[in-house]
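Figure caption, in words: inputs first, then the predicted bound structure.
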Amino acid sequence: MRATRVLVLNSGSSSVKYQLLDMADGSRPATGLIERIGERTSRLRHTPAGRPSREREEPVADHETALKAVAEELDRDGLGLDSPELAAIGHRVVHGGRRFTEPTVIDDAVLAEIERLVPVAPLHNPANLAGIRTAVALAPHLPQVAVFDTAFHTTMPEYAARYAIDTAVADAHRVRRYGFHGTSHAYVSRKAAELLGRKPSETNVIVLHLGNGASASAVARGRCVDTSMGLTPLEGLVMGTRSGDVDPAVVFHLTRVAGMSVDEIDVLLNKRSGLLGLCGDNDMREVLRRMEHGPDAEAARLAFDVYVHRLRKYIGAYHAVLGRVDVVAFTAGVGENAAPVREAAVTGLEGLGLAVDPERNAARGDGPRLISPPTARVAVAVIPTDEELEIATQTYALVTGRTTDET
Ligand code: ADP
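Bound structure (adenosine-5'-diphosphate present):
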């Protein structure tokens, strides 16, 4: 039997998400999620294709226990880690620094390098590592691949990756712009080119990944040349709970004037800012609803306006970076679903050739679709992202030497 399946694992700090993908036919034999790892009760939801989900609530102390539970659930459906159809395990790893420019087969040296990057990704890399170590122990016979969120951005020119600070300090502490969500930016920029019937290597794309976290990227002929997140996923666009760009002096000011500690300001900017900080809601659905009906519509409107103003500035900036833009692609929870955000983001940018067609923008749909008028100079598109598929595709190509088309 040919091994055509890839198990994709996304080990976060308190959750593990997983999908089993079959690269031969594009099916997903199982998907699932364990939440609240380390809390008193954790919840596992496992969904085998075409059958009802199974849920379990029990304490799951750590990633080791979590992955054992995932392996057990897969086993119950005959999809376990020993299954001859399983070709590899692909792991999402948030920070790959400068060294990991491509998906990489995991060995001890790779684990050591991911560990070395913990100081620049203290929230993410330890959880990713815990997931990888357990998966390697559970399935030592399988090739395991790390796919890095930062990899797609390693093509940024040095002048886009550098902060204008003392080079010696920056180099000593690896302070530079890395960018995140790279797997999504890679996938969406490629799909956007395909939607236009063009080769990615001949297409310039601005990708707007708007989920709970949000980032923009400028992709020139298939290569990332700039992105809005930096040393950490805090820089750039306004997000659900993160501020995005602020004057760094805000930190000094709050330290001196408000007596806040660095840790308190870290929490403020990462967890109590963005839409949540501006209006009390981090979910764009709620913000849009309150703008229409709420007693405090004004705060919701201001949050929306700040969010959209930042977005518009980045679209303009990336136009300048790229020189010529073929398509602006919206993706992730807000980008795929919130028509008012898409419309507002391009309003006023007619001079750059940007517009949305109100009917196309309002129409619901599952797949990649154009929302600009047929005559528009620059295409505007909605491209649903699929990070699991991209991780599986990259993993499969690396371990088999085959692309999905050849399977
Ligand atoms: P993550 O960054 O966690 O992967 P998603 O890409 O799933 O997140 O995006 C989640 C966010 O998408 C939600 O917090 C919500 O703000 C937004 N969202 C989802 N559906 C809609 C919708 N129908 N309208 C507006 N916003 C939506």
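The domain at 197-387 is CATH 3.30.420.40 (Nucleotidyltransferase; domain 5).
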